[in-house]
Amino acid sequence: MMVRQLQDVQVTVVGLGLMGGSLAAALRGQCRTVTGVARRAETVDAALARGLVDRATVDLAGGVSGADVVVLATPVRTILHQIAEIGPLLPDGCLLLDLGSTKTEIVNAMALLPEHVQPLGGHPMCGKESSGPEAADPALYRSRTFVLCPLPRTSQPALALAVRLVGAVGAHPLLLDPQRHDSLVATASHLPYLLACALVATAGTAASSDPAVGRLLASGFRDTSRLAGSDVAMMLDILLTNRLEILKAVDSFQAQLDAMRRVLETADGEAVRAALSAIRAGRLRMLP
Amino acid sequence: MMVRQLQDVQVTVVGLGLMGGSLAAALRGQCRTVTGVARRAETVDAALARGLVDRATVDLAGGVSGADVVVLATPVRTILHQIAEIGPLLPDGCLLLDLGSTKTEIVNAMALLPEHVQPLGGHPMCGKESSGPEAADPALYRSRTFVLCPLPRTSQPALALAVRLVGAVGAHPLLLDPQRHDSLVATASHLPYLLACALVATAGTAASSDPAVGRLLASGFRDTSRLAGSDVAMMLDILLTNRLEILKAVDSFQAQLDAMRRVLETADGEAVRAALSAIRAGRLRMLP
Q1: Regarding beta strands A33-37 and B172-175, do their DSSP bridges make them parallel or antiparallel, or are they unpaired?
Q2: Nearest in space to A229 (alpha carbons), one of B247, B220, B124
Q3: Which of A51, A198, A200, A201 is the most exposed place for a label (fewest CB within 10 A)?
Q4: Residue B248 to residue B254: CA distance in whole angstroms
Q5: What does the angle CA A278 – CA A280 – CA A282 come to, to the nearest 5 degrees?
Q6: Greatest CA separation found in chain B?
Q7: How far apart, in whole angstroms, are the C-alpha atoms of residue B127 and residue B125?
Q8: Measured at the alpha carbon of residue B91, what is the angle toward residues B87 and B94, in degrees to the nearest 5?
Q9: Residue A128: its pLDDT value, please?
Q10: In angstroms, what separates the C-alpha of A18 from chain B's closest C-alpha?
Q11: Do residues A124 and A171 make contact, with C-beta atoms less than 8 angstroms apart?
Q12: Å between A280 CA and nearest CA of chain B
């Protein structure tokens, strides 16, 4: 089987929020057609008005009819429901890719799809605080890592088509096993979210005994707590579908914070300086 | 005693990094003269070249001679040394203000200054990741809270002059007791720094068993860990001079994180959603 050229394929993006809308906009013009599917008519109208898609509909069956690639760009537990129902609607050989933030449960669900479907787990490492089609930005994926989790049944041509699609939006594909992905993002993404939440809760407790704390919140607090402003429905699905890996990451973090607490408790200036310097250098290596 | 008009006073800023350089630049033109004092000749040259000050010198005694206001804009433990030495150099009635991030130890040191000096603790709630006179920005203080910690001996005219100075750089004065300030900033600033550090350490541990974690670090991790890139010398002084309040804030945070961990452990979706929603709403109230 030949790998399809991107300009020959019909792509349907299901979910036209920040992630789906941005992907559609980045692909538009590079594929034969980009169709959008949304639950609400207002989202369809907004996506058309902003030119994110060639056409859009609230009808899932109509939207995926004739598609070579279908991308599920909804919250994780919605993706799980959609995978369970979409199989019979998909054309023969159709690549079904998702953009969900956790992968083990999704790839397990994909394994149950009818044989005529080519399933592939996906997770682009990008996002922003704002959401909805209004926030969509065709540059969102540029230079970002785009994780792909092939199943044993995923054909090489289907994977190769997905790699072209990832390249077309400017991202870098990274093939990972879904369990490994979930363990890594527990540390890289989900732990930072919980820390931001616990920091806000701590400041809330402080504010209940002294409201002046609100006047002392500067850019450091704002940045460290930013993720606590994330969409709750999206984060809830992530936490519930990656619970065990996240609990492990929390344990690992608590051990690190305990260690820092102990160093500070000694008031040994040189030991504190050494710990802070090593961490600062480590961050520069991680995020050059 | 009359409150001095700002245009009549001679201000000397000791330390021409981000904070001191920005303050000098914001005051220049609004005071009779703004003099800068730095330890290194290159800093003096850079401040003059960037037009941050009217004049600059490496000579502390010469720089503060004739000053109506002297502002110490160095790291906290340097401020403590400077307070111990600067008294005899200051003109009669001179206001000595500092910009240090912790206040109890500084205000205690100020209480020992010779009687002819008018001391006042200060802490503007602003900053940025970059440092040095190159990063100085006259808009840095605009719309920010500027904490002032008067001593029992601080005269009303001296405090009123400081309030004018704070207003002249666009900041909002907030009078606080030094212990209360230190307790509040432990939660608002120093805790976020330690969380960022412990997060980087956790990711470092994860990376040592699987380096792929580095490819999955996206904007969420970057923002949550940003403070771990702060200047180590500055942060070391802060941690060592506000140790007990910071340890209390860490304990409070650990209790909050434990509580979140327990809710997640139950896998009770509605309980998790309620906790995340309350925190998200709390952050919106704190940071509108």
Answers
A1: unpaired
A2: B220
A3: A51
A4: 10
A5: 65
A6: 68
A7: 7
A8: 80
A9: 79
A10: 15
A11: yes
A12: 5
Report d(CA B137, CA B209) in Å as an integer. 42
For residue B1, what pLDDT band results from cuts at 50, 70 and 90? low
How much is the pLDDT for B185?
A: 98
Are A210 and B247 inside 8 Å of each other by CB? no
Residue type, B5: Q
pTM over 0.80: yes
User: For residue A88, what are the contacts with CB-CB under 8 A and spacing of at least 6?
Assistant: A114
A-chain residues near B252 (CB < 8 A) = 202, 205-206
For residue A171, the chain B residue with the least C-alpha distance is B215
Residue B154 has which token pair?
């601080």
CB contact under 8 A, A224 and B227: yes
What's the pLDDT at A66?
Answer: 97
Distance of CA B9 to the CA centre of its chain: 24
The distance of B8 to chain A (nearest Cα, Å) reads 31
According to DSSP, the residues that pair with A11 across neighbouring strands are: A34, A69
CA–CA separation, B250 and A209 (whole Å): 17
Yes or no, beta carbons of B240 and A272 under 8 Å apart? yes
Q: Which of B159, B200, B187, B156 has its CA nearest to residue B255? A: B187
Q: Shortest Cα distance from A217 to chain B (angstroms)?
A: 5
Chain B residue numbers with beta carbons less than 8 Å from the beta carbon of A183 are 210
**Per-residue confidence (pLDDT) for residue A1, from 0 to 100:** 52
CB–CB contact B145 A216 (8 Å): yes
Q: Which two tokens stand for residue B283?
A: 């952050």
**Which residues of chain B have a CB within 8 Å of the CB of A222?**
287
Cα–Cα distance, A229 to A193 (Å, whole number) = 9
**Prediction ipTM score:** 0.94
Cα A124 to Cα A117: distance, rounded to the nearest angstrom: 22
Q: Do B215 and A287 touch (CB under 8 A)?
A: no
Q: Return the residue matching tokens 């941005």.
A: A22
Q: Which of A279, A284, A285 to mutate to test binding with chain B, by most B CBs within 10 Å of its CB?
A: A279
Read off the pLDDT of residues B91-134 as tens digits, 9 standing for 90 and up. 999 999 999 999 999 999 999 999 999 999 999 999 877 788 99
Q: How far apart are CA A136 and CA A49, in angstroms?
A: 12
- Note the pLDDT of residue A130: 79
Tell me the residue type at A32: R
Using the beta-carbon criterion (under 8 Å), do A217 and B184 form an inter-chain contact? no
